[in-house]
Amino acid sequence: MKDNFLLGIIGPSDSGKNAQILGHSLEGSAAQIREIARSAAEIGIKRIAIVPHKGSASEMFAKEFGKREKVIGVVPLRDREFGISYLNKGVCDEIVDCGTWRNSAIKMNEICDAFLCLGFTCGALNEVAFSKWFNKSKKRKKKILVCAWRISSKLPKEIEKDVDLVYAGSLAQLRQRLKGLV
Fold it and tell me: pLDDT tens digits, residue range 54-67?
């Protein structure tokens, strides 16, 4: 695996609410996220990028992953509209300033080689949708791996046609797909 490969971790900013909607326990959902993070580090992923919302799936992932590897936080340091007091910059080894919240999905797409989606939410769907236009590699679509057991349904075909989504139905399948990213 290339040392400069950067995997973006996207998903629910409120893990508890998302788990409840899906009928999962918060403890079970958190355990899944920790296992996914350990798996990513074990197969050789060295760097991830997140938006470090407190209580988010990304923050949970980073707390486990960061024990082993590097976590880059995309943070709107100059945002005056929504602020950043609810972010946990402490889980990040490095901060990339995206200016304002309106730019965060674009910046994630600009710096990441691929995404791992831990669940669908408005923010994650922004990052998925913007992968069509703001892709680090203009030569190919950004690969987006979705943990199918952490979503209520797949995206509509009219959205899927414009992005490179792959649904992984189990942790074993996800591990295989992560290995194949680079």
Answer: 999 999 999 999 88
Residue type, 20: Q
How many Å apart are CA 67 and CA 40, to the nearest integer?
12
* Residue at 56: amino acid letter: S
CA gap 99, 108 in Å, rounded:
12
Residue ranges of the chain whose pLDDT lies below 50: none
CB 116 within 8 A of CB 178: yes
What is the reported pLDDT for 182? 61
Q: How far is CA 46 from the centre of its chain?
A: 15
**DSSP conformational letter for 145:** E
- CA-CA distance, 60 to 16, in Å (whole number)? 11
Quote the DSSP letter at residue 53: B
Which residues have a Cβ under 8 Å from the Cβ of 30 and sit 6 or more positions away? 15, 60
Across 114-140, b (16+ Cβ under 10 Å) vs e yields bbbbbbbbebbebbbbbbeebbeeeee
* Concatenated DSSP letters of 87-115: B-GGG-SEEEE-SSGGGHHHHHHHH-SEE
CB 12 within 8 A of CB 18: yes
Q: Is the pTM of this model over 0.90?
A: yes
Strands 7-10 and 114-117: parallel
